[in-house]
């Protein structure tokens, strides 16, 4: 008796080729200004590449003698990042519970909180910083408030979605036993969600250092103010040193975060 012959596996080459062709056509169409696409001027790149190359050469030579002037602003940036992350962490706990379905069965309240969080996330952090600098003045406070808003949007969005995606059979048992939602959240949802919160809090701390460097450009304090000042004077060797210091700080915070995450598991 001969062995059964399996039918050949269906191939999707034609469909794959059509999808790739459609993507290529859409990409080409976005580069045609005549139909509303962006204009990519490669000739300008060929004409002006030397200007960029000169700045890159300057950036490749960090001015180490400038390091003492960066200590104070860098400490200010770290303080802004830490205060912003801690404040956002405290605020994110109740807001996340209001935004997650298992911890807040009230659909109107939940949808309202989510809409508010989406609105907070939709506004760019530079816009927040610009408005707050105009309202409060130049300094670290506008930067801290901006970081709190940014962190709050990120943490609430990611943690509430993670809570939604998790099975919660214990909540049904708790409700059947007559437990109130507040009691159930405190006894069941929060203990299981602490690792999720901790991961996002540490991640927001890393992000804050990077964002602080940008916020300083609009006067929100930190190392960004010094970065913008040296850039305005075309002191790209000093800019290079500042960027290098930000990189080192971000890497150190990431290593510390990894250690803390392993301990929290």
Automatic annotation (TrEMBL):
GO molecular function: ABC-type phosphonate transporter activity
Subcellular location per the Swiss-Prot or TrEMBL entry: Cell membrane
Keywords of the record: Cell membrane, Membrane, Transmembrane, Transmembrane helix, Transport
CDD domains reported for this sequence: TM_PBP2
GO cellular component, one term: plasma membrane
Transmembrane segments: 78-100, 126-150, 207-227, 239-260
Signal peptide, first to last residue: none
Matching NCBIfam families: PhnE
Family: Belongs to the binding-protein-dependent transport system permease family.
Name of protein: Phosphonate ABC transporter, permease protein PhnE
């Amino acid at each position: 008796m001969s062995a059964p012959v399996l039918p050949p596996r269906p191939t999707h080459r034609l469909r794959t080729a059509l999808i790739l062709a459609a993507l290529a056509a859409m990409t080409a169409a976005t580069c045609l200004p005549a139909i509303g696409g962006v204009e990519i001027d490669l000739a300008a790149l060929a004409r002006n590449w030397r200007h960029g190359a000169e700045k890159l050469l300057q950036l490749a030579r960090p001015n180490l003698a400038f390091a003492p002037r960066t200590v104070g602003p860098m400490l200010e940036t770290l303080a802004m990042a830490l205060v912003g992350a801690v404040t956002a962490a405290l605020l994110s706990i109740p807001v996340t519970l209001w935004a997650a379905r298992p911890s807040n069965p009230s659909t109107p309240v939940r949808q309202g909180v989510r809409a508010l969080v989406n609105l907070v996330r939709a506004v760019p952090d530079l816009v927040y910083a610009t408005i707050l600098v105009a309202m409060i003045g130049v300094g670290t406070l506008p930067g801290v408030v901006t970081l709190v808003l940014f962190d709050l949007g990120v943490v609430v969005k990611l943690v509430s979605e993670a809570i939604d995606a998790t099975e919660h059979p214990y909540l049904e048992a708790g409700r059947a036993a007559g437990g109130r939602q507040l009691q159930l959240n405190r006894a069941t949802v929060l203990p299981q969600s602490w690792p999720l919160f901790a991961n996002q809090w540490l991640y927001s701390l890393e992000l804050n250092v990077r964002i602080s460097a940008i916020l300083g450009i609009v006067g929100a304090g930190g190392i960004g103010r010094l970065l913008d000042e040296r850039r305005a004077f075309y002191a790209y060797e000093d800019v290079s040193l500042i960027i290098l210091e930000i990189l080192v700080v971000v890497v150190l915070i990431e290593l510390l975060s990894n250690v803390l995450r392993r301990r929290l598991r």
